[in-house]
Amino acid sequence: MSLFRCPICAAPLERTERTYCCPAGHSFDIAKEGYVHLLPPNQKHSAAPGDDKAMAAARRDFLSKEYYRPLLNTLRCQILSLSGESPKILDAGCGEGYYTAGIYEALTAAGKQPKMAGTDISKFILRHAARRCRAVEFAVASSYHLPLGDVSVDLLLDCFSPLALEEFRRVLRPGGYFLYVVPAADHLWQLKEVLYDHPYPNEEKETPYEGFTYQAIVPVEDTIHLPCPADIQALYHMTPYCWKTPRSGAERLEKLETLDCRIAFRIHIFRKNGQEEPL
């Protein structure tokens, strides 16, 4: 049985070769790449919500070169230590599946039997995710209306994606873990120095959330070397900066041949309150 639930009636979905079906007869086709569309029309805010084709391609090109490997390695270590033998894991806002696939590979290599799902609102980016890891279920869906059952997952990852706390509390079991990845104050500082005349650091804060208890804040920091304009532009186009950079800043970036840039993340680890249930 799938981790996904019917977005129309909330009944369990069963995956067949070409569709997901529920007992009420609602059926959802699986795209040729392997993902399913579970975003009802009334939850769409545009014809093609989320990352467009260009941003999806930039994320794929940049992450496939392992520039963010330090973050992936840290996530793998943390999730391995927090997971039982058969964990149910959701990557909410999974993007092109770089972290999702890497975590799945680490869990299986450790002898575990994970059941994993990834959701994202962009069908363009899920095409890459579904091709990357066929063993993980991927669905076009909103983090604010997750197509999963109540208390159905043991661990939930949100990496640079919308913070849909009400839904996260609903789908995560008592005693389950929530990992929230955000940029640290000086993340991509050298890139911002090129783009803006007066760059400012990202805000860093420790925010308690109702229904969760803080476990740790894990830092991940490194410096990456981008050896060519193509990689610099891929990084730029996968960030929100490409939407709000003055033309003068974009032109300065276009002239760069190489860039050494700081990467810095914070992994906020929470545990859901309530009586613990077995993994």
Features:
single chain, 279 residues, alpha/beta, Rossmann fold, 8-stranded mixed beta sheet, 3-stranded antiparallel beta sheet, 9 helices, 11 strands, 26% strand, globular
Note down, in words, how this protein is organized.
- The protein is of the alpha/beta class and 279 residues long.
- It has a single domain (33-41, 48-201, 208-272), classed as Rossmann fold (3-Layer(aba) Sandwich), CATH 3.40.50.150.
- It contains 9 helices and 11 strands.
- The strands form 2 sheets. The chain has an 8-stranded mixed sheet with strand order 4-7-6-5-8-9-11-10, sandwiched between helices. A 3-stranded antiparallel sheet has the order 1-2-3, with no helix packed on it.
- Helix 1 (53-63) packs across helix 7 and helix 2 (69-82) packs across helix 3.
- The longest helix has 14 residues, at 69-82.
- It is globular and about 55 Å long.
- 41% of the residues are buried.
- The model has no long low-confidence stretch (mean pLDDT 93).
